[in-house]
Amino acid sequence: xxxxxxxxxxxxxxPTAVERATAQLRExxxxxxxxxxxxxxxxxxxxxxxxxxxxxxxxxQRLVAERLAVAEPYRGVRVTSFDDAQLLALQQLRAALEVxxxxxxxxxxxxxxxxxxxxPARAAIDAMERLSTGDDRPGSATDAxxxxxxxxxADFHAALVAASGSPRIIEIHTTLGSELLLFILHARTHYSxxxxxxxxxxLLDELPTRGPEALRAHLExxxxxxxx
Length: 228
Prior knowledge:
Structural class: mainly alpha
Oligomer: single chain
Keywords: DNA-binding, Transcription, Transcription regulation
Low-confidence stretches: 1-11
Shape: globular
Protein name: GntR family transcriptional regulator
Organism: Agromyces indicus
CATH superfamily of the largest domain: GntR ligand-binding domain-like
CATH architecture of the largest domain: Up-down Bundle
Number of helices: 11
Pfam families: FCD, GntR
Strand order of the largest sheet: 1-3-2
Order of helices and strands: HHEHHEEHHHHHHH
Number of domains: 2
Mean pLDDT: 88
């Protein structure tokens, strides 16, 4: 590392080796390059990424904290996979946060949601629609398109939560960010981009009349689909 780069790192203006390794492994997990239940070995990851095992160990700890990886005694670290119980638990937590956030948002705005509050969510759907090829077969989009859809899907739900103006709910929901991206990766085989767009447009259309119950039904539908 050059003196300039070292100074930048020290000043916090450039990612550290741990941050770079974490970002690389996170990308590989969320793209599916590292599949569910894939063992993460310190030695091989360190050699592949050109960093020390200490750096990789710290990166693994961050991925475990984001719930993108799990660490178990005698089994080491592996990529997170969702069994039925884990999927149901995540969806229940999402409902507790997101449905309550929408309820608070309606209360905050006097019983309705103004278009300004919904605009960020609508923009995320519009961006998703531009990625759709019109092919309704589940998983039909390219990996690059799905990665962007996953990000936009997270943006959509974050926008609904943000409308509540509740700092603690927003903060806790933000901590689910990486896990929600992984959740959508697991859902690829059940959805096309077009169907994701359709479901979320329908949700926005129903929110003004059904309120929080529209979001609850939306989450319950995706849970049933994945469990079935």
